[in-house]
Amino acid sequence: MRRCFIAGNWKMNKTVAESLALVRELRGAVSMVRDRVEVAIAPPFTALQAVAKALEDSNIGLAAQNCHFEGSGAFTGEVAAPMLKEVGCSWVILGHSERRQYFGETDEGVNKRIGAVVKAGMLPIVCVGETLAEREGGKTLEVVTRQVKGCLAGYSAVQGEKFVLAYEPVWAIGTGKTATSRQAQEVHAHIRMLLKEQWGAGVADQVRIQYGGSVKADNAAELLGMPDIDGALVGGASLKVADFAAIVKAKG
Q: What does the DSSP assignment read for 100-160?
């Protein structure tokens, strides 16, 4: 049985002081789901160390929003995976559509970043998803297939069984539009089929696949009720304690 995993991606929001205030509220709001739902948050880099300390003895894990594929070096403005591990991160979000759209990240780059994350002793949340033009052109499954295969190429079943994937249709991120539960389930089932081809049915059945894209309290229960949707990667709603807590509790 796959344990539901809800992660909040704060994106480029919240100062350190604001982050700590949000965490103080959030701890109490999601504490009752400790055994049923795994919870993590991804604050901006500047707040990670302070937030890690504030999360001690809680049921909330810490994620980073990205990392470089090298462990150190002359890469001004970048953050290495070992640095994230040192400050308390367990997860790193990789390949988010905003990183692909605005910063030119590719499947090959995500593939290399996964290696850095694993080497540092953390786990990746690997994002895939199609644009509106690709969906309207009937290319959703083609695009997602290319992304999944490109990002995961070369990784073994032993490594992959603990990875998390996140299907995030680009047209539904920050737009208020959400894939229907049927649309989301179709893509999630396709991703699981791809994982079965690469790593076998046993591993494919263990890998958790989140849905992301305007997830809110009022649509979370229906989405999370789909057989291949194992959680959510939440954007804007993760910045509001009541909304995020409601999503966390939606799994029943």
A: HHHH---HHHHHHHHHHHHHTT-EEEEEE---HHHHHTT-HHHHHHHHHHHHHTT--HHHH
Catalytic residue, candidates 38, 98, 134, 168:
168
Residue tagged 């939440």 (tokens): 234
User: Which of 96, 105, 130, 134 is an active site residue?
Assistant: 96
Annotated active-site residue 96? The verdict is yes
Residue with tokens 């001690």: 56
> Over the stretch 48-76, which tens digit does the pLDDT of each residue have?
999 999 999 999 999 999 999 999 999 99
- Whether 208 contacts 231, CB under 8 Å: yes
Cα–Cα nearest to 49, from 60, 30, 39, 64: 64
Domain total for the chain?
Answer: 1
CB atoms under 10 Å from CB of 199, counted, come to 21
Asked if residue 180 lies in contact with residue 214, where contact means CB atoms within 8 angstroms, the answer is: no
Residue 9 lies in domain: 4-249
Annotation marks residue 168 as catalytic? yes
The pTM of the full predicted model, rounded to 2 decimals, is: 0.96
